[in-house]
Amino acid sequence: MKNFIQRAITGIIFVAVLIGCIISGPFSFGILFCIISAMATYEFCTLVNYQEEVDINRNICTLGSVFLFFCFFYYGINPAETGIFIPYLALIIYLLVSELYLKKKNPINNWAYSMMSQLYVGLPFALLNVLAFQNNLEISVSQYVFILPLSIFIFNWVNDTGAYCTGMLFGKHRLFERISPKKSWEGSIGGGVFSIIAAFALAHFFPIMPTATWIGMALTVVVFGTWGDLTESLMKRHLGIKDSGNILPGHGGMLDRFDSTLMAVPAAVVYLYITSLL
Q1: If pLDDT is split at 50, 70 and 90, which confidence band does 138 have?
Q2: Which of 109, 147, 152, 154 is the most buried (most CB within 10 A)?
Q3: Does a structural domain hold residue 19?
Q4: Residue 248 sits in the same domain as residue 198
């Protein structure tokens, strides 16, 4: 009971802060996710450093994710400015070249995990800016549209809740028993149905896209968010841990809370670019 209350309180505060910062404007959005990106990257680096023959620079990798987010954020506000990415490229080069001089036991592992910290954690958070800022390159003007990044989390929350309830009632066929024994096909389908209902609601209150596009967005987040959840579960099984951290009482670490987001955001960006070309 105590753990349930703890989880509930943490969850309410977490959701309130997330929604509040996204709705409040671009700068509260930027500050929040810059912090989250830093915490998630540092957590990832700490986890992989527990492995034998892995010793990556957590501070530099974290700085890289923060700077990558800042680059996308600044570009979102000033779409005509592309030179902001140059220092980030220099930092990536440093991560590669530094292994020549550090004489660590397995530089290949260090290169691989350093780059993974940027691709798996840093890039998805940075891509939230692509959703948040709608740019007109011809006149170099951008507009902050909070509902697009917020919709990723809404669909994930609705999917998780719908999948849990449906799975508890009707779940019989395991979705991916080798990695996540509790997930069922019935639960996943139920989560998808609830997410489609949420898409109709968002299309009604935020008609910035056709209803069909909102539905496609919901299904994209559901499918890739589920894969993101399973990907993190596979990583934790390999590392032999239950939670990625304990920074959120009753909810684990930052990667535990944003596992679905890490794959859903890039997929949503690709989906919106494809639909805009059709």
Answers
A1: very low
A2: 152
A3: no
A4: yes
